[in-house]
Design brief:
By secondary structure, the chain is mainly α. The protein has helices at residues 10-17, 39-57, 59-63, 70-80, 85-100, 109-133.
C-alpha cells in the first residue's frame, strides 16, 4: 500500500473530538472530513508534515541505501503499519493544526487543545516510528575498521 493513500475519515476525527464537532456536517466546497469547506488544506499540510517527520526520524534507512528513495521508505512504513498507527499520528497532527489556526492567545481553549495534540503527536511519533521501524528491513551497516598502531 502506498503512503500517498494515507488519509483520514470523519470517524478518525470523531474518535478523538466527537463532542467538539457534534452537529458539524459541511457538504459544500472541497471538504474531505465535512468540518469546513477547505478542511482538505489542513489535511494536506498535516500529511506533508507527517511525511517530513517520518523521513527525518528514519533517515538512516535512506542514508545507507537500504531503501533507494524516500518514497520507497514511506511506502514500506505504510505497508508495515497493520494497526493504523500512521492514521493516529495523522489525526493528532491534523487536530493540532486545526485548533492552532484559531489560537489567538495562550489562554484560549484552542491554544490548549493545539498544545495537547502537539504533545501527543510528538510522544506517539517517537514511539510508533520506533515500533514500525523494527518491522522494516534492517539498515545496512558497514563494519568499522580499526587500525592499531604498534607505537
Amino acid at each position: 500500500m502506498a503512503f500517498s493513500d494515507l488519509t483520514l475519515t470523519r470517524n478518525n476525527i470523531d474518535a478523538l473530538e466527537e463532542l467538539t464537532f457534534k452537529g458539524v456536517n459541511v457538504t459544500t466546497g472541497s471538504t474531505t472530513l465535512n468540518l469546513s469547506e477547505k478542511d482538505n488544506l489542513i489535511l494536506g499540510k498535516a500529511i506533508k508534515l507527517l511525511k517530513t517527520d517520518i523521513l527525518e526520524n528514519l533517515r538512516e534507512f535512506i542514508n545507507d541505501t537500504t531503501y533507494s528513495t524516500e518514497t520507497a521508505l514511506l511506502d514500506a512504513i505504510h505497508t508495515a503499519d497493520s494497526e493504523e498507527l500512521l492514521v493516529d499520528l495523522l489525526s493528532y497532527k491534523f487536530l493540532e493544526l486545526w485548533f492552532a489556526q484559531d489560537a489567538t492567545h495562550r489562554e484560549s481553549y484552542s491554544y490548549e487543545k493545539a498544545r495537547k495534540y502537539y504533545a501527543m503527536y510528538n510522544q506517539y511519533l517517537t514511539a510508533n516510528l520506533r515500533r514500525l521501524s523494527g518491522l522494516l528491513a534492517k539498515p545496512k551497516t558497514t563494519p568499522r575498521v580499526r587500525f592499531m598502531s604498534l607505537y
